[in-house]
Each structure stands twice: as structure tokens, then as C-alpha cells.
């Protein structure tokens, strides 16, 4: 996966409220992503679909 593809996917997940995005604007720009509670609630559905 290229850097461009990763950035695009993370922005899609952020738009869907599945990850939160924090920008640290210091000398060098740094962005952190974190899974939201909404995304965590999808875990049982993911596990059920994998078991199926």
C-alpha cells in the first residue's frame, strides 16, 4: 500500500466517523488516527461474518 492510498483510506474512514483524526501542528506536521467507539461497536458483526 502506498502512502497516498493509506492517506486516502484513512480520510474515508474519518469521513465515516470510524476513526478520529488529531493534527499536531508543531515544527513537523504530525497526524494521529484513533479508532472511534462507533467502529468498536462493529467488531461483533465482523466476527460473526468471519465465522459464517
Can you walk me through this structure?
By secondary structure, this protein is α+β, with helices and mostly antiparallel strands. The chain has one domain. Helix content is 50%, strand content 27%. It is built from 3 helices and 2 strands, in the order H-E-E-H-H. It has a two-stranded antiparallel sheet. The longest helix is centred in the N-terminal third of the chain and has 13 residues, at 3-15. The protein starts with a helix and ends with a helix. The relative contact order is 0.14.
Total domain units = 1
- The helix-strand sequence is HEEHH
* Category from helices, strands and their pairing: alpha+beta
Count the strands?
Answer: 2
Major sheet: size, sense and barrel closure? Answer: 2 strands, antiparallel
Descriptive keywords:
3 helices; 52 residues; two-stranded antiparallel sheet; alpha+beta
Write the topology of this structure:
Layout: H1 3-15, E1 19-25, E2 29-35, H2 37-40, H3 43-51
Antiparallel strand pairs: 1-2
Briefly, what is this?
This protein is α+β, with helices and mostly antiparallel strands and 52 residues long. The protein is built from three helices and two strands. The protein has helices spanning 3-15, 37-40, 43-51, and strands at 19-25, 29-35.
